[in-house]
Write a structure and sequence with these properties.
The complex is a heterodimer of chains A (142) and B (409). With 142 residues, chain A is an alpha+beta fold. Chain A is built from 4 helices and 3 strands. Chain A has one domain: Sufe protein. Chain: A, CATH 3.90.1010. In chain A, a hairpin with a 6-residue loop joins β1 and β2. The model of chain A has no long low-confidence stretch (mean pLDDT 92). Chain B folds into 2 domains: 139 residues, Aspartate Aminotransferase, domain 1 (Alpha-Beta Complex), CATH 3.90.1150; 256 residues, Type I PLP-dependent aspartate aminotransferase-like (Major domain) (Aspartate Aminotransferase, domain 2, 3-Layer(aba) Sandwich), CATH 3.40.640. Helices cover 41% and strands 17% of the residues of chain B. Classes of the chains: A alpha+beta (142), B alpha/beta (409). Chains A and B meet through α1 of A and α12 and α15 of B.
Chain lengths: 142, 409
C-alpha cells in the first residue's frame, strides 16, 4: 500500500496530466473503443482497451480533458494493463467506491489513491470517473 | 445610483450563504440569478393564500387570479414597451424560441428559403432553427463575426438576400457579451422582406429594451435570469405576426371550440399559445421581479454592470497570465482563461474559494471554433454584485494557486 503525502499526491496527478504516457491512438485496430463525453465538464474522451485471452493487454485514450479526467484515466490505463478481466473490473469497482466515499480496498488502487479527495470537489466526480466508466462499459461487454 | 447594501439585504442567498467554507461570491448571473424576498413572497403567497386556476371561472378566487395574470401581462408589456396582447407566457427563453420556430418557421418557411443565425448563438437559438431547416428544407446561413466576435450590420448585409425569411440573433452574446444593434438589424431585415427574432435572455435583465421603437418582430427572455422564478419566461411578438401563427401546442384554455370533424378554432393571441394551466406562481413571481427591477431602474443596472466589468478588467489586464476574450464588451460578462490552465480546472479552483463562475462552452459550441479553444471561463455580474465580489474574484484568479489546491488544502 502506498503512503503518500499531499505533496506527493499532487505531483503524481500533475505528472500524469502534463505527461500522460497512455494518451495516444491505439497501436492496432484490435482495440475495443468507447467514446465518452461529460455533460457537466467538456471532457470528450475515447478509451481504447486491447483484450486478448481474457487479459487487458493494453490500454490508452485520447481526446480533450481537464486535469482530473486526464490524470485519472492515464493512471487507470497503467493499472488495467496486464490484468485479467475480473481483476480489472474489481479495480474499477474499488475506485468507484473510493470516489463515492464507500469502503474500498486500497491494495488494488495503487497510484489511483491520489483521487481520494475528489468528493471535496463534488462537481469533479464526473471527471474523475469518466475514463473508468468507459473502461467498465467495455469490460462489462465481456 | 442605488444603495447596494440595502438591495443585498433583500436576497436570502446573499445573507450568510457559504460555499466550501467561504462566503459565497456569486458570479454566474448569466446562467441564473438570485431572488429577492418580494419575488419569493409573491410565489409563496400564490400557494398559501391565492391558489386557484386562471382562465374562465365563476367564483371570486379564480376571477381574482385571472385578473392578476392579466395584470402581470401588462407589467411585462410596460417593461419592454409592447402591447399586453403581444405578451405570451412560456416556460422560458428556450420554449419561446421553439414556439417561434414551430409556429412561424415551420408554418411559413419552405425549401430554399434562408434563415440567418450567428456563430455566437446559444443552443436555444440555433437548434429550433435546425429543426425548421430539417422539416422545411430552408437553408441556414451564419453571419460572419468580426475580429472581436461581434455581429455587425455590414456583415449581415453581406449575406442577406431576397430568400432570407428569418434572422434570429441574441441581443447580447452569452459568451462574449457583445451587444447587437437590433434596431439597425430590424431595418435591414425588413428592407429584405425578412423578420427579426431577438433572443433577449442576456439583455432584457440588464438594459432597457423598447420593443416598439426597435421595431423587432419577436423578443424572447427568461424570468430566472432577472430575479424571477425558474420555469417562466415570455415571448413578445408583433400582434399581426402572432395572429397569423397557428398554435401547435394545444389543449384546454386556448380554443374557442372544437368538434368531431377534427376542427378546432383557437382563441386570439396571446391566449392561443398558452394551452393548459400556466405556471401561475411563476407569472406572479415574474411580475414581482419586474417591479423590483423597475424600482432600481434597469438603466442603473446596466451602468452598474459596466462599472464592475471595467473595474475587473483594469485589474485582470495587469496580469500576463490571464487571457481576456472580450475586453471591449464591458457588459456584465468577462470571458477569460488562465494561461495553460484548463477552464474547468480554473472554475474548480475558484469553487474551493467560494467563488461561483461558469466554465465550458456555455451552450455556444460553434463559437469555440471561432475562438480556437475548447473552453472558456465566464464570470457575470448582476445588480447585487459588489466591488468586494470582484476583488475576491480577481485575487483568486491572479494569486489563487492551481486546481490541486482545491483537492489538497
Amino acid at each position: 500500500m502506498l503512503t503518500l503525502t499531499n505533496d506527493m499526491m499532487r505531483s503524481i496527478i500533475m505528472d500524469h496530466y502534463s505527461n500522460p504516457m497512455n494518451k495516444h491512438q491505439p497501436t492496432s485496430d484490435k482495440f475495443e473503443q468507447i467514446h465518452m463525453h461529460s455533460d457537466n465538464c467538456i471532457d470528450d474522451l475515447n478509451i481504447f482497451l486491447l483484450i486478448e485471452n481474457g487479459i487487458v493487454t493494453d490500454a490508452c485514450f485520447d481526446g480533450v480533458a481537464c486535469t482530473i479526467s486526464t490524470a485519472s484515466t492515464d493512471i487507470m490505463c497503467d493499472l488495467l494493463k496486464g490484468k485479467k478481466i475480473d481483476e480489472a473490473k474489481n479495480i474499477i469497482k474499488q475506485y468507484d467506491n473510493m470516489i463515492h466515499e464507500q469502503p474500498f480496498d486500497e491494495e488494488v488502487l495503487d497510484e489511483a489513491i491520489v483521487f481520494i479527495n475528489t468528493s471535496k470537489q463534488a462537481a469533479r466526480i464526473r471527471c474523475a470517473t469518466i475514463g473508468w466508466n468507459a473502461a467498465d462499459a467495455i469490460l462489462k461487454g465481456k | 445610483m442605488y444603495d447596494i447594501k440595502k438591495i443585498r439585504e433583500q436576497f436570502p442567498m446573499l445573507n450568510g450563504k457559504k460555499m466550501q467554507g467561504h462566503p459565497l461570491v456569486y458570479l454566474d448571473n448569466a446562467s441564473t440569478t438570485f431572488k429577492p424576498q418580494c419575488v419569493i413572497d409573491a410565489t409563496v403567497k400564490y400557494y398559501s393564500e391565492e391558489t386557484a386556476n386562471h382562465h374562465r371561472g365563476d367564483y371570486d378566487l379564480l376571477y381574482n387570479m385571472d385578473q392578476k395574470v392579466q395584470k402581470a401581462r401588462q407589467t411585462v408589456a410596460h417593461f419592454v414597451n409592447s402591447d399586453a396582447k403581444e405578451v405570451v407566457f412560456t416556460s422560458g427563453d428556450t420554449m419561446s424560441l421553439n414556439l417561434i420556430a414551430l409556429s412561424y418557421g415551420f408554418q411559413f418557411l419552405k425549401k430554399g428559403d434562408e434563415i440567418i443565425l450567428s456563430e455566437n448563438e446559444h443552443a436555444s437559438d440555433l437548434l429550433p432553427w435546425y429543426e425548421v431547416s430539417h422539416l422545411t428544407g430552408a437553408v441556414i446561413k451564419f453571419i460572419p463575426l468580426d475580429e472581436e466576435g461581434r455581429l455587425t450590420v455590414d456583415n449581415l448585409k453581406k449575406i442577406i438576400s431576397n430568400k432570407t425569411k428569418v434572422i434570429s440573433v441574441a441581443h447580447v452574446s452569452n459568451v462574449l457579451g457583445n451587444v447587437v444593434d437590433i434596431k439597425a438589424f430590424a431595418k435591414v431585415a425588413h428592407e429584405n422582406g425578412a423578420i427579426l427574432v431577438v433572443d433577449g435572455a442576456q439583455s432584457v435583465p440588464h438594459m432597457k429594451i423598447d420593443f416598439k421603437d426597435a421595431d423587432i418582430d419577436f423578443l424572447t427572455f427568461s424570468g430566472h435570469k432577472m430575479c424571477g422564478p425558474t420555469g417562466i419566461g415570455c415571448l413578445i411578438g408583433k400582434y399581426e405576426l402572432l395572429e397569423k401563427m397557428w398554435p401547435y401546442f394545444v389543449g384546454g384554455g386556448m380554443n374557442v371550440s372544437f368538434n368531431k370533424d377534427i376542427e378546432m378554432v383557437p382563441y386570439e393571441p396571446p391566449m392561443r399559445f398558452e394551452a393548459g394551466t400556466q405556471n401561475i406562481a411563476g407569472i406572479l413571481g415574474l411580475k414581482a421581479a419586474i417591479e423590483f427591477i423597475e424600482s432600481i431602474g434597469v438603466e442603473n443596472i446596466h451602468v452598474h454592470d459596466r462599472e464592475l466589468c471595467e473595474y475587473a478588467l483594469s485589474k485582470l489586464e495587469k496580469c500576463d497570465d490571464v487571457i481576456i476574450y472580450n475586453k471591449n464588451a464591458k457588459n456584465g460578462i468577462i470571458t477569460f482563461n488562465k494561461k495553460g490552465v484548463f477552464a474547468q480546472d480554473e472554475a474548480t479552483l475558484l469553487n474551493s474559494k467560494g467563488i461561483a463562475i461558469r466554465s465550458g462552452q456555455h451552450c455556444a459550441k460553434i463559437l469555440n471554433d471561432f475562438l480556437g479553444i475548447p473552453a472558456t471561463c465566464r464570470m457575470s455580474t448582476y445588480l447585487y454584485t459588489t466591488k468586494e465580489d470582484i476583488d475576491a474574484f480577481v485575487d483568486a484568479v491572479i494569486n489563487g494557486g492551481d486546481i490541486l489546491d482545491a483537492y489538497f488544502n
